[in-house]
Design goal:
single chain, 160 residues, Rossmann fold, 3-stranded parallel beta sheet, 42% helix, globular
């Protein structure tokens, strides 16, 4: 009997990807055979970095991780998941404040597609405070977010 691959989608804006995001990808990869990092267009959030830049950052940050790939999407997440034939969504939880929003989104996604399950993973304690919005604020004020970003992403941002 052929083994069925366990695949999960880790969606987000990733503006930019941080060490906290990467921590979640690595944890998810221990559970799933493959992890699809799904980068949302998110025009309503007015991202600091273009969709292409965000995808490129993630590709650079995950190039050493087997079973991980990156795609962008601009539709409902459940529609993207259905198109990719993936039934599990991974979400990261840093603090209790994240939980209420993520739980609501998990319920909404399951309401829209009963086959969708959401799994919540926590980053390690050293990455628990990191968010893309913190990194963007540091960048906007010309600070140094080096310790919050994967090395490859840090180098790509320096070149911009």
């Amino acid at each position: 009997m052929d083994k069925i691959e366990k695949i999960a989608i880790y969606p987000g804006t990733f503006d930019p990807i941080t060490n906290g995001h990467l921590d979640i990808v690595i944890r998810a990869r221990k559970i799933f055979d493959k992890v699809l990092i799904a980068v949302a267009e998110s025009r309503e959030k007015k991202p600091m970095f273009s969709l292409k830049e965000r995808v490129d950052f993630i590709k650079a940050a995950t190039k050493e991780l087997d079973g991980v790939w990156v795609e962008s999407f601009d539709c409902l997440l459940v529609d993207f998941a259905k198109k990719k034939e993936v039934k599990t969504i991974i979400r990261g939880l840093r603090a209790v404040s994240d939980f209420e929003y993520e739980l609501q989104m998990g319920y909404a996604n399951n309401f829209l597609n009963k086959e969708i399950d959401t799994i919540y993973l926590m980053p390690s304690l050293k990455n628990a405070f990191i968010s893309s919005s913190v990194v963007r604020a540091i960048l906007q004020h010309e600070g140094d977010p080096s310790s919050l970003l994967p090395t490859s992403v840090r180098e790509m941002i320096k070149c911009m």
